[in-house]
Automatic annotation (TrEMBL):
Source organism of the structure: Alienimonas californiensis
Name the record gives this protein: Universal stress protein family protein
Gene3D superfamilies: 3.40.50.12370
Entries under SUPFAM superfamilies matching the protein: Adenine nucleotide alpha hydrolases-like
Domain of life of the native organism: Bacteria
Taxon lineage: Bacteria, Pseudomonadati, Planctomycetota, Planctomycetia, Planctomycetales
Length: 331
């Protein structure tokens, strides 16, 4: 069974797609952006400090969207169902029975049993982030990235979560109190590298999750390695051609022109702020500052090494929660 392995990246694939993007610079799919919100959410527990953040995030989604909520404990070291039952009782959710297998297999089985459209998972699974270093995600996360049929809301460094209350959003209710907590749904950043078939569903999830009055950014990131590969190949084809960062950046903006227009319309209809940004890799913002500062949304095109590598790298170096939206998402 193969795992999510961005190390298999090939320059040839990046060149083919980069040259195609550079030459065509088309405007993409003209379909409107339809905000997506969760209907059935799976909360995965691992006994680590991330549980104290994951549970309030699940409570927020349940309170805001009225979604069905399921709880699964996927630890291999403790087969008891007591923790799942305890948390499910607090959240007015349903605890799922334990299944056999490794943690990632238990999680995938729970996703299928709950028929959920979103799973909240800790990373690294079963360990505190500081125990494995800043550049490790763990086998469980890698396998979920490779196989999960639904988006993953990945919790890295825990933080106090501000609850959502429909009548008094700034007040606490006694359930998972978080006075002075942060709301990662108030600021969302959709980060896209090159062409990506998961960009539209990722944008739709972002438009559905952004808090009213919040701010959503679509960031088109031009990685330096990608640029240098494309530049070298195009210079061989046309030594006198314009192969500047600026031209490839303009091609990216044209590629996502309709997605940009759709998000702008969704922002106007949904009452949230929206901005399109294009950045070179070295000018990308520091997304590790403040774990609850924002939610980073990453489209994952499976089988595309550039997309897989970007997701793996971002996951390992960020403290923010991430929403990973893969291709072949169950809708």
């Amino acid at each position: 069974m193969s795992s999510f392995d961005p190390s298999e990246s090939t320059v040839g694939q990046s060149l083919d797609r980069g040259i195609d993007l550079f030459r065509r610079a088309h405007v993409g799919d003209a379909a409107p952006v339809r905000p997506t919100s969760p209907r059935r959410v799976l909360l995965v527990l691992d006994g680590s400090g991330q549980d104290a953040c994951s549970a309030p995030l699940a409570a927020y989604l349940k309170a805001r969207f009225g979604c069905d909520l399921y709880v699964a404990d996927a630890r291999e070291s403790d087969r008891s169902e007591a923790k799942a039952v305890e948390v499910a009782t607090q959240l007015h959710a349903k605890a799922l029975p334990r299944t056999e297998g490794e943690s990632y297999e238990q999680i995938l089985a729970a996703v299928a049993r709950a028929d959920c459209d979103l799973a909240i998972v800790p990373c690294p699974f079963g360990r505190e982030p500081e125990s494995v270093g800043p550049h490790s995600a763990g086998l469980t996360t890698d396998m979920l990235l490779a196989q999960s049929p639904v988006p993953l809301l990945v919790v890295r460094w825990p933080f106090p979560v501000k609850p959502y209350f429909e009548d008094n959003p700034e007040q606490g209710s006694g359930e998972f109190p978080a006075a002075g907590g942060a709301s990662p749904f108030a600021k969302l950043v959709v980060m896209v590298v090159g062409e990506n078939d998961a960009a539209r569903p990722a944008a739709e999830w972002a438009a559905g999750l952004i808090a009213p009055g919040g701010n959503l950014n679509l960031e088109l990131l031009l990685e330096e390695e990608f640029y240098q590969n494309v530049r070298a190949a195009l210079m061989e084809l046309d030594p006198d051609g314009d192969v500047s960062h600026e031209r490839l950046t303009r091609a990216l903006r044209k590629e996502y022109g309709n997605l940009h227009a759709g998000l702008a319309k969704a922002a106007e209809a949904g009452g949230f702020g929206y901005e399109l940004q294009t950045r070179r890799e070295e000018s990308a913002p520091n997304i590790t500052a403040g774990p609850g500062d924002r939610l980073v949304v990453l489209p994952l095109e499976r089988g595309d090494h550039q997309s897989e590598g970007h997701v793996a790298d971002t996951l390992r170096r960020t403290a923010n929660p991430l929403l990973v939206v893969p291709t072949a998402v169950r809708r």
